[in-house]
Design a protein that fits this description.
The structure holds two protein chains of two kinds.
Chain A (H helix, E strand, L loop, with lengths): L4 E9 L3 H8 L12 E6 L9 E7 L5 E12 L3 E7 L5 E14 L2 E13 L3 H33 L9
Antiparallel strand pairs in A: 1-7, 2-3, 3-4, 4-5, 5-6, 6-7
Chain B lengths: L19 E8 L3 H12 L4 E4 L11 E5 L2 E4 L10 H10 L3 E3 L5 E6 L2 E5 L10 H15 L13 H5 L3 H8 L4 H13 L9 H9 L10 H5 L8 E3 L4 H10 L4 E2 L4 E6 L4 E5 L2 E10 L3 H5 L2 E3 L4 H9 L5 E8 L9 E7 L7 E4 L14 E8 L1 H6 L4 H16 L8 E6 L18 H5 L10 E3 L12 H17 L3
Parallel strand pairs in B: 1-2, 1-12, 2-9, 6-15, 10-13, 12-19
Antiparallel strand pairs in B: 3-4, 5-8, 6-7, 10-11, 11-12, 14-17, 14-18, 15-16, 16-17
Classes of the chains: A alpha+beta, B alpha/beta.
The structure holds flavin-adenine dinucleotide.
Chain lengths: 164, 479
């Protein structure tokens, strides 16, 4: 059994935690902000414990994989844990989002921590590959969290008009 | 909601039960109907224009930005060889100004944004193939008889395939096709897979005039092409001024439901009254013409054609900022987005401000949701769509685009008196089967509209041409 690897990144987003929770709970929307998710192929709307959603993900270069995630733990509006399959040779993939409201300037902000744990597989070669890919994974988590922030800013307040 | 029901045009009307008599009843107060009515009135005919909406202009619609500034939510650009609409504008005292095009444009592909100059993005894989394909399109378009494309030597073969099938044949990879689709997103409200090759070659052949053969280059281009100029006061001002000149002859809020005709006259019915005329001009989108109650029935071929000339799917999404901030960064505000993006293209749509074209007023970015983009986003919650559009804008001009002062959309598929946009595209088989029926008068009823033009079919210029030609045909009729 290989050891568990963990990659965790934190970012402070200039948007309210309530909106962060709302958007990351929408299982149909990951292709809009999670780097490497090309398409959500099946989903169940607002994340619900025990239910699944599926994605097509970019892996290396032009290669893609299909993954399925199950929502395991929900502690609204703070913590969410999912487990995923379809990332071989990595196994026992767990994804955790921790959401914490913090002030940003004069407004509401969010400290978001994005963590993934997995077993790399493939023995020593797997561990080597894992070491090589971790910096890319960290960058992609930061990119995703910035994209989430942009998405929430761009969607504006609920009351902002959409038709002039 | 965008409201273009601004001043000038409107003539209300009380319901009438006794048929009114006129020389010509025009159905539809878009550019084509109004141009026809204007020409007929100038020639001394007694004309009534019946318009379903509570405003004139049809696919031309000004959105009020406050402070006397407007921006278009419908058709807006004009350019060289569009002499009919430019001539009409000059006649109406509506001036043009150059669409903002200084600085670099941005090409967005697979989430990456790159600056470029000119009209065609610097994609090293797609470009050589695209260049050859465009040259070939122009060459083939020159062989298409502009007034009878179905008689082209290879008409049957070309009408049996989609434009996409042909593009795949003449280009390697998908780059060329996807870049043509960027243009067709706004020009067709669809993709090359939805249109016949023959229709597309005819459409290209029409991007010119009697002296200058049409080219795809002129259709795509900003400077020197169809996106070169805009109108001071917004394009709807053309329709508003025409309606003013028609002085009481335009009746708004009057959807026509049926047309009956005999040997001597034609009767046009609406809930607001009945008009008996010597001639009628149906200047509505073709699908809406096919939905009128006709007595006798429209010839089945013409009915079949009009039903098949349905519109593409197009919405404009516009974000208003305090100033056009991207200009100071050396950006034109123009973005070209390869497949998979939220919008297909975007433009700096700021009002001209002090007249120099340099702003001084608000900055406006406008993106097209056309065809595939419309299908992906039209049914999503408005808030999510707005977010996606603004993020696309941010890829081109930076994160300031995420926080507009205001944002509005105009989805032309939601308009019951238009049913899509910007124009009709013919699928394979349609032109060769039914093409000759497009402009053929049905008894005393003539057809006008942008879809009834050979040059600049689907454009404002085509609408004006068709309106004028139709008026001429009626004036030439001996009865
Ligand atoms: C988003 C968009 C962008 C565009 N961009 C450009 C551009 O940049 N440049 C360009 O040249 N063109 C552009 N176009 C196309 C251009 O707007 C049209 O070609 C032109 O305005 C069509 O004029 P028309 O009179 O033929 O038809 P319409 O404007 O459609 O007028 C038809 C009229 O008939 C009325 N009507 C329909 N049914 C009935 C009925 N039963 N009874 C009474 N009235 C009825 C309608 O309400 C409407 O007023 C664009 C169009 C759209 C939608």
């Amino acid at each position: 059994m290989s050891e568990v690897s963990e990659v965790s990144e934190t970012a402070v987003l200039a948007v309210p935690a309530e909106r962060v929770w709302e958007v990351l709970s929408a299982t149909g929307r990951y292709a809009e902000w999670v780097a490497g998710v090309l398409e959500v192929t099946d989903h169940h709307g607002e994340a619900t414990v025990g239910r699944t959603y599926s994605e097509r993900n970019r892996t290396v270069g032009p290669l893609t994989t299909r993954s399925t995630w199950t929502v395991r733990e929900l502690d609204p509006p703070r913590r969410r844990v999912d487990t995923g399959t379809g990332f071989a040779p990595m196994h026992d993939m767990t994804n955790v989002f921790d959401v914490e409201p913090v002030p940003v300037g004069d407004g509401l902000g969010t400290r978001l921590t994005y963590t993934v744990r997995y077993r790399p597989g493939l023995g020593p070669i797997g561990r080597l590959i894992d070491r090589l890919q971790q910096p890319g994974l960290r960058r992609s988590f930061q990119t995703s969290m910035r994209a989430l922030e942009d998405l929430i800013i761009a969607e504006g307040d609920e009351h902002e008009g959409h038709n002039g | 909601m965008t409201s273009g029901a601004t001043a000038g045009a409107a003539v209300g009307g009380t319901p009438v039960s006794v048929p009114r008599r006129v020389d010509v009843a025009v159905i539809g107060a878009g550019l084509a109907g109004l141009t026809a009515a204007d020409a007929l009135t100038a020639a001394g005919r007694d004309v009534i224009v019946l318009e379903a909406r509570d405003r004139v202009g049809g696919r031309l619609l000004n959105h009020d930005l406050g402070d006397g500034q407007v921006v278009e939510a419908g058709g807006q650009f004009v350019g060289p060889t569009q002499n009919q609409v430019l001539g009409l504008a000059a006649d109406l005292g509506v001036a043009t100004f150059p669409a903002y095009a200084r600085g670099a444009s941005v090409y967005v592909h697979r989430g990456r944004a790159r600056r470029f100059g000119g009209d065609i993005p610097p994609d090293p894989l797609a470009l050589p193939g695209l260049g050859l394909a465009m040259a070939r399109m122009n060459q083939l378009a020159r062989t298409v008889p502009i007034d009878a494309p179905w008689t082209a030597r290879h008409a049957r073969r070309w009408d049996a395939m989609t434009f996409a099938t042909w593009l795949r044949r003449v280009t390697a990879g998908t780059g060329g096709l996807e870049l043509v689709d960027v243009f067709l997103g706004s020009a067709y409200g669809g993709t090359a897979a939805e249109a016949s090759l023959l229709f597309s070659l005819h459409y290209i052949a029409g991007m010119g005039d009697e002296r200058n053969p049409g080219t795809i280059d002129r259709g795509i281009a900003g400077a020197g092409g169809a996106q070169e100029l805009r109108f001071h006061g917004g394009s709807q001002l053309l329709a508003l001024r025409l309606a003013e000149r028609l002085d009481g002859r335009v009746q708004l809020g009057t959807p026509v439901r049926g047309i009956e005709q005999g040997d001597r006259s034609v009767t046009v019915r609406s809930e607001r009254g009945t008009w008996t005329a010597r001639h009628a001009v149906v200047a509505t989108p073709p699908v809406l013409a096919s939905r009128l109650a006709w007595s006798p029935r429209l010839p089945p071929q013409q009915d079949a054609l009009f039903q098949r000339l349905s519109f593409g799917a197009l919405a404009k999404c516009e974000a208003v900022y305090d100033e056009p901030f991207w200009r100071a960064d050396g950006l034109s505000g123009q973005g070209v987005f390869r497949a998979g993006s939220t919008v297909c293209s975007m433009f700096d749509n700021s009002p001209p401000g002090d007249g120099s074209g340099d702003g001084g007023g608000p900055g406006v970015l406008m993106g097209f949701l056309g065809g595939p983009q419309w299908r992906a986003w039209a049914h999503r919650p408005a808030r999510e769509r707005r977010g996606a559009v603004l993020r696309a804008f941010a890829q081109v001009v930076g994160r300031r685009a995420l926080r507009p002062r205001s944002y509005f959309e105009q989805d032309w598929t939601a308009e019951p008196w238009t049913l899509g946009g910007p124009t009709a595209i013919a699928a394979p088989g349609v032109l060769t089967a039914f093409g000759p029926w497009r402009d053929r008068p049905f008894g005393r009823v003539h057809f006008a509209g942008a879809e009834h033009a050979d040059y600049w079919n689907g454009y404002m210029d085509g609408a004006v041409r068709s309106g004028r030609d139709t008026a001429q045909a009626i004036l030439a009729a001996t009865d």
